Amino acid sequence: MTETDDEKRAVVLASGGMDSATAAYLAADEGYDCYLLHTSYGQETEDREYECARRLADELDAADFLRVETGHLAAIGGSSLTDDEMDVADADMDSEEVPTSYVPFRNANLLAMATAYAEANDCEAVFIGAHSEDFSGYPDCRPAFFDAFQRVIDTGTKDETDVELRAPFVEWSKTDIAERGVELGVPYEHTWSCYREEAPACGTCDACAFRLQAFQNVGVEDPIEYAERPEYAD
């Protein structure tokens, strides 16, 4: 396709999960050509997540797909997603504690790479799929963090660079995201959320619980396979 001045470009952080897939489809719906950035950082399910992110790029006919290995996050440790000595906990959806699945300062690392990718490709926005149920547990998903990172982007890029950090779901619940994604036709069968297993999903970790609850709340069956499907609906 011939480039024109009318084209809008956006980097989307594509984890392979349902939130980032919905963010990508939202960006495409808003008219952006999507540049998908996927990172593998030593998480238990990295192969399945990469497979899903790669499939998302194909489904969206993305302008570009970039996979970056960020093994330093696993080397640093401190998360049950990357440390074999730490167990992934069962879901505790009412807890206000930072869960063991928190990867220290991960989003700052990912957004730094996404900003570099955006600046190099003249993109106008960076999309991240974080939402309110994330920032109740993860400090780097709070609205104040994204506001602060926007200032980092503005300060740390070229004067002529103008990249907007978009976290469109930051005040949304997982249920809101599922509802919007169903409207947008997101292929959720090609997404993965489980923290423990690459197939089938366990159904009992935090990520599985919030995902299943969202689908149950909107009355749509989650199309991926689970070892267990507990009832989590509100």
TrEMBL record:
Belongs to the QueC family. Pfam families: QueC. Binds 1 zinc ion per subunit. Catalyzes the ATP-dependent conversion of 7-carboxy-7-deazaguanine (CDG) to 7-cyano-7-deazaguanine (preQ(0)). GO terms for molecular function: ATP binding; ligase activity, forming carbon-nitrogen bonds; zinc ion binding. Its EC number is 6.3.4.20. It comes from Halorussus gelatinilyticus. This is 7-cyano-7-deazaguanine synthase. Its cofactor is Zn(2+). The lineage of its organism: Archaea, Methanobacteriati, Methanobacteriota, Stenosarchaea group, Halobacteria. Keywords: ATP-binding, Ligase, Metal-binding, Nucleotide-binding, Zinc. Zn(2+) binds at C194, C202, C205, C208. It catalyses: 7-carboxy-7-carbaguanine + NH4(+) + 2 ATP = 7-cyano-7-carbaguanine + 2 AMP + 2 diphosphate + 2 H(+). The keyword Ion transport does not apply. Pathway: Purine metabolism; 7-cyano-7-deazaguanine biosynthesis. HAMAP family: QueC. Transmembrane segments: none annotated. ATP binds at A14, S15, G16, G17, M18, D19, S20, A21, T22, A23, A24.
